[in-house]
User: Fold FdhF/YdeP family oxidoreductase from Pseudovibrio brasiliensis.
Amino acid sequence: MSDNIIAKKSTAPAGGWGAVWSCGQALLQNTSLTSGIKTVLKTNQPDGFIGPGVAWVDPEKTTSIEFCENGVKTVAAEMTEKQITESFFQEYTVSELQTFSDFDLEDQGRLTCPLRYNRITDRYNEITWAEAFKEIGAELRAIKDPKEVVFYTSGHASNEAAFLYQLFGRIYGTSNFPSSSNLCHEASGIALEEAIGCGLATVRLEDFAKADAIFVFGHNPGATDPRMLPVLRDATKRGAQVVSFNPLRERGLERYADPKNQLEMVRFGSRPVASHFFTPKLGGDMAAVRGMVKAILAWDNERILTHSIIDRVFIEENCGGFESYEKALELTPWKEIEDQSGLTRDEIEKAALLYVQADRPIITWGTGISQHKHSVATIREIMNLLFIRGNVGKPGAGACPMPGHANTQGIRRMGITSDPSEEFLLALQDAFEFEPEMHAGVDAVEAIKMMNEGKLRVFMSLGGNFTRSAPDTGLTEEAIRKCRLTINIATKLNRSHLMTGSLSYILPSLGRTEYDEQRSGDQIVTVEDSLSKIHSSAGVNPPASDLLMSEPAIIAGLARATIGNKVVNWTHLIENYDRIREKIEEVLPEFAGFNSQVRTPGGFYLANPIADRRWATKSGKAEFSGYSLPLATAAQLTSKAPKLTFTLQSMRSNDQFNTTIYSLNDRYRGISGGRKVVFMNPIDMRRAGVSRGEKVDIGTVSEDGRNRRALDFQVVPYDIPEGCIASYFPEVNVLVPVYSTGDQSNTPTSKAIPVTLSKSRRRG
Assistant:
C-alpha cells in the first residue's frame, strides 16, 4: 500500500454511511458481497458464531444484524478468498517477507497447511500434521526443564482451546502462561481484586439501560468497542449524562449514526453521544478522580447541597479503610491535583457535580487508564469514587473495565495465567490426578527479558501477533530469535511468524466463522464477553482448506505427541467438545450445567457475588485505598525536562483491531493514506519548530542507553493537551521500553512514553 498521508478534520459522525461503506469495501476486497453479507448476518446471533473481535456484550434480544464495523472487517478478513500455499514461500524468503508491511503480510490470505522453517534456505516448507506433531513433541520432550517453555495466548482463543492449552502446559510441567491481558488490562484485575475481591465488571448490560450517568475514562469506543456506541447514545437520548475523560476528544464520542436505524440513515442524521468532555493530561486521571472525591466530601461536610451525598450507611456496613482514605484526601492539596490532572478545579468540581447528581452511575475505563505506571492506584481511586456513594452492587451502577479481545476474561478464567489461585490448581489436580507446578510462572514482559537472557528456549503462541503487540519491538524480536523453538498457531501470516527460532513451525487453524467437525459431528465453542456472559459459537462456512485443524485439535495433537495419553485421553476429549466442557465444569463450579446452559439462546451469565454485595476480599469488605498521588507523572516530568520533551501515548485507529490493520485510514480522526503520523497540540508544534505535514523522528528518552527511534512520522495538529502527543499502535511500540511497566501489574506503560522529536532527514 502507498503511504501518501492526508490529514483533514473529520466532521462525519461515527458509524453511519461511512461505516457501511467501509464494511462494504472490506467485504468486496476479501469475498463476494453475497457470501459476506450472509456470514455477517450470522455474527453474534444465537444460531451463529461470536465475532472474533471485540468483547462487548450481546443484547438479550438480538436483531437480525448486530452491526459492528470492526466485527464485519474481522469476519471479512477471515473469509478472504486469498490463500497462502507452499508456492508463496517458494517465491519469498522469510528475509524478503520481513520487508512487507503488516497490512501486506495479513493481506496475503489464509494459511492453508502446516509449515516448517528451513534455516538453510530461509523459507517455510509444507509438512504434514503428523510430521509437525512428531517433531515438535520430540523437541519438547528433549527440553530438560519444562520451565524453559512459554505458552502464550491471545485473548481470542475459545474457552475450550484455552482450557486444553493450559492443561497441556501444566501437565508438561510449566507455569509460564503469559497472555495478551498482561499487555493491556492486568491492572484492572489486580485493582478490582484488591478493592472488591473480584477482578471483573460489577455490572451487566441491562444496568447501562438503567444508569443515569456513564463516565468513560481513557477509552475510545469508536475504535475499540463500536457496539458500545449505540448503548451510550441511547443513554444520552433518554437524558442520562455520558461523561468522557480522555486526552483526545474522540469523534466516536461526539456524534453517532446508527447503521441499523433506517430513518436516520435515509436522512443522514446522527445524534450526540457524550454530553460532557474533560481532557486531562496523560496520567492525570487519578488526580482528577481524587479531586472529584475531595470536592464531594467538602460539599458533604459543609452541607453545600440539600441532602447528604455520602452514603455513610453503605460505607459503615460494607467498607474498610475509609478513615485512612479521608486522611489521604486531606493531605492532597488542590494545586497538586490541578497540576497533575491538567484540569482546573472548576472543571473537576463540575465533573463531581455530575457524579453526585446521578443516582445510578457507571464508570468504564480502557487502556488509557490501565497502561500507566500508577494504573492500579488509579483504578483503586475510581473504586473509591464509587464506594463513597454506595454505587457498587446496586442496579444501574458499578464498575466496568473494557478489555479488548472477545474472550480475554474467558481465557483467564480457564487458567491462562502464570499465577493462578491455589484453589484452581487443586481443582485441576483432583480432576486430572496430576500435580501441577504451584509456583508462579512468567508474564509477557518477564518472558521477553528471560528469552533475551537465554533462560527460556521455547515460545509457543496460541493466536496473536506477539512481537507486534509487545513493547520494545526490536528487543522483543531479538528475544524470540534467541529461542530454540517457536510455534505459532494462526489463521493468517503475521510478522511474529517471521521472527524465527532455530526451529520454527506455523500451524494453521480454523477460523471462528468455519465449521468445526470432529468425530461426533459439528462442534460449538464458547466465549465470555466483558460482562461475564457466556455464549456459544458455531461456524457457518466451510473451512478455507481441508488441511486446517481446530485450535483444540491442534493442542490435543501437540499434547499427545509430547506427553502422551497417560494423564489425559486427548483423543477422547477432542471427539466431542462437550467432554471438554464437562471437565471445565468439574474444575470450575460456577460452570455447573455448562453443556445445557450454553445451549440456551443468548447464553448465560456467570454469577457475580458483587451484585449481592458479597465482597471476596480478605477482610470481607470493600476496601478503600489510600494511595498517594504519584510524586510526578510522566507528563509532569517531561514538562520540566531541560530539553523539549513530550509524553507519547499509543492508540488505535478506527480501522484496525489490535495488531490487525484493515486499512491505512482513520476516518474518525481525518487521516487517510498512512499511519505514520504524530498528533500534536499546535502550541507544541511551534515550540518544537515543526509545521503541519512535516516529518519528524521520535526518540525515547531511555534509561538503559538503548537507542529507540521511530522514523519519518508526519506531524498532524490536533486538539490534545500541551506536552502530550499521540501516535498509532503498534507502530510506536518500538518506543516503549520493556523496563517501563506498571506498579504491581507489570503492564507496559504505553500511554506514558517520554520522547523527543527531531526533524526527519527525509523531508516529506
